[in-house]
Amino acid sequence: xxxxxxxxxxxxxxxxxxPLTAQTTPYAGCDPKPIPYFAAxxxxxxxxxxxxxxHARTFxxxxxxxxxxxxxxxxxxxxxxxSGSQVDLIKxxxxxxxxxxxxxxxxxxxxxxxxxxxxxSVDTTLFQAVHRFAEQIAPDRVAIAYSVADAKRxxxxxxxxxxxxxxxxxx
Length: 171
Fold this sequence. Notes:
Elements: H1 2-17, H2 46-56, E1 61-66, H3 89-95, E2 99-105, H4 113-137, E3 142-144, H5 148-156, E4 160-167
Parallel strand pairs: 1-2, 2-4, 3-4
């Protein structure tokens, strides 16, 4: 039993440490748009059909999505690919999420000029990451909203709405 458990733990550690794709595989771009989970199916009962119809016509948003700038890099797997993160573009499309507030967060640091400079640098990097996502990585599937009117227009176009919310406000 101990050997079996040790083997399972060792196997799990190897799998967890292994890259999701081989290093020699070139980046192929965004994953294709998935079929939403709320798409009607002939097997749906009446209640499920009604619930899916309500979900399909409702603008749903996630009001807090933590991000890291590394998830928005060009030329490698990023936020438009299925990932291990709680939210990515594929999961948004599958689940019918209309938009998300991407959290521009910087942890507290020293409240001096060096601390403010660090915060500004981190904030700017995260703002640039969300812009890169909407403007370079997946411009045909995501757009940034700066107002309610923007959000309505973007959502009506079939794209996902990207909002940005600043936390801590040091940057």
